[in-house]
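Quick one, tokens below. Sequence please?
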């Protein structure tokens, strides 16, 4: 009785096979490892094919690759301020990556309720990303 099993991996939809380097991590489980994922690996479709003497099976697996940017490093953090009610306040925050500067409000008594600040009647975010608070209240 021949109980030998065979598992193979096939790249279904990618024509430039030379750029895709992969290894089998575990010969018994036939897990596939792709070394150094790159953006061009996105949407590669793999077929895992299994067969032994009695049965065969296959499955398609698509690899999705996302480019995740690291958060910006804040180079200047504003100091706490105490101001009279109704006086306009300007807060500066600078980052090396100016595209990702955002302002968030975290209520003192409800830190779980974080609110992203957008331009509206009370708040204005300047082109240089300074936050202007109009008519602050207690």
């Amino acid at each position: 009785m021949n109980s030998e099993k065979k598992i193979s991996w096939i790249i279904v939809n990618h024509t430039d096979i030379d750029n895709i380097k992969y290894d089998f991590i575990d010969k018994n489980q036939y897990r596939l490892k792709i070394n150094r994922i790159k953006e061009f690996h996105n949407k590669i479709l793999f077929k895992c094919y299994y067969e032994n003497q009695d049965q065969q099976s296959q499955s398609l697996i698509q690899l999705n690759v996302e480019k995740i940017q690291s958060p910006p490093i804040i180079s200047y953090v504003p100091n706490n301020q105490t101001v009279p009610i109704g006086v306009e306040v300007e807060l500066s925050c600078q980052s090396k990556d100016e595209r990702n500067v955002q302002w968030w409000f975290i209520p003192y008594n409800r830190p779980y309720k974080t609110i992203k600040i957008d331009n509206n009647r009370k708040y204005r975010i300047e082109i240089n990303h300074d936050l202007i608070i109009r008519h602050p209240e207690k």
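Residues 6-63 form one domain. The radius of gyration is 27 Å.
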